From TrEMBL:
Transmembrane residue ranges: none
Species of the source: Aspergillus bombycis
GO molecular function: oxidoreductase activity
Pfam families attached to this UniProt entry: ADH_N (PF08240), ADH_zinc_N (PF00107)
Enoyl reductase (ER) domain ranges (all copies): 15-337
UniProt protein name: Zinc-type alcohol dehydrogenase-like protein
SUPFAM superfamilies linked: GroES-like (SSF50129), NAD(P)-binding Rossmann-fold domains (SSF51735)
Lineage: Eukaryota, Fungi, Dikarya, Ascomycota, Pezizomycotina
Length: 341
């Protein structure tokens, strides 16, 4: 039987590790598609899974990582959406095509409740498949499913982003940089916070109007208010959770929107209800997005030929180094693992 290599998250003696295994090559059923993976990219939640800190139930010994791109090498008998040779990626919730999120979709979370992308070949039901634009490399397309779709849907939470509105993004991870790029498409003004002057320069290069270094200016919410003449921003994408949520709220205008998209600094935070009340804020979460939002985002990206920002590309054999790079927090953009050539 033909073999392939796949990484699995193994928990033994209360320790979690990512182990490379030899496994049988799967073959597609009637509505399934077999993809030869070319590249995958990591998200913060992948490191949380490896640390044993992911907050939702996961499959035992799961193949990790939700984000990847590759080539269709075989399609089942009744597959109509794609064909052999197509360049594709996969939606993060394999059965969420459109409409609001329901709890059922958690049972098809790629790389968490079902096997993900960190393998030489992957098998998915055709409804999860999303074709990628011709102008993108596999590495670029691999960076999209979680971070880019999260940014796209978060910017349009509660009501669509409007030209002239102001958005606050945080840091230089994938979601923040995609949000910056997308907000510029919408004609919005983008402000940012980050931890170093070097990262600030990259954010300005991508179109941020002003950047506050929170390492040297811990009261960054006051700076954001000053940059908006005391009014605050229309929307803020809160990445870190515990350490940023209160100041995110303080940075937002009366009737503004705080969209929580991450938990990088922890699950606490203590946002006082009075802050929400006095500023009449809407505080909401964003759970990536359905396939139709992914496809709409790709249409916009293709029209403007937006290219994802990639921090570093690692060979498959160095997948552990890729995880370590993400843990350092020094990255600017997406960390990619090249699975096959």
């Amino acid at each position: 039987m033909e073999q392939m290599k796949a990484v699995r998250i193994i928990t033994a003696d209360s320790k979690t590790s990512a182990e490379l295994r030899d496994e049988p090559l799967p073959s597609p059923g009637r509505h399934e598609v077999l993809i030869k993976m070319r590249a995958v990219s990591l998200n913060y939640r992948d490191t949380a899974l490896l640390r044993g800190e992911y907050p939702l139930p996961t499959k035992k010994d799961v193949v990790p990582v939700s984000d990847g791109a590759g080539e269709v090498v075989a399609a089942g008998k009744n597959v109509t959406r794609v064909k052999k040779g197509d360049r594709v990626t996969v939606s993060c919730f394999a059965n969420w095509t459109g409409g609001p999120f329901t709890p059922d979709y958690h049972s098809n979370s790629v790389g968490f409740s079902i096997d993900g992308m960190l393998a030489e070949y992957v098998l998915f039901y055709e409804d999860a498949i999303v074709p990628i634009p011709d102008y993108m490399t596999y590495a670029e397309a691999a960076s999209l499913p979680c971070a880019a779709v999260t940014a796209w849907t978060a910017l349009n939470k509660i009501e669509p982003l409007q030209p002239g509105q102001t958005v606050l993004v945080q840091g230089t991870g994938g979601v923040s940089l995609f949000a910056l790029q997308f907000a510029k498409i919408f004609g919005a003004r983008v402000l940012a916070i980050t931890s170093s002057d070097e990262k600030a320069a990259k954010l300005k290069e991508l179109g941020a109007e002003a950047v506050v270094n929170y390492s040297t200016c811990p009261d960054w919410d006051r700076e954001i208010l000053a940059l908006t003449d005391g009014k605050g921003v229309d929307k803020v994408l809160d990445i870190a959770g515990e350490k940023t949520i209160a100041k995110s709220a303080a940075s937002t205008k009366i009737t503004g929107v705080v969209v929580v998209v991450g938990f990088a600094s922890g699950f606490g935070g203590g946002l006082p209800p009075v802050d929400i009340l006095v500023r009449t804020l809407t505080v909401t979460g964003s759970t990536i997005g359905p396939r139709i939002d992914f496809e709409a985002m790709l249409t916009a990206m293709q029209k403007h030929e937006i290219r994802p920002v990639i921090d570093r590309v690692y060979p498959f054999a160095e997948y552990r180094e890729a995880y370590r790079r993400l843990e350092t927090g020094q990255h600017v953009g997406k960390i990619v693992i090249e699975v096959t050539h």
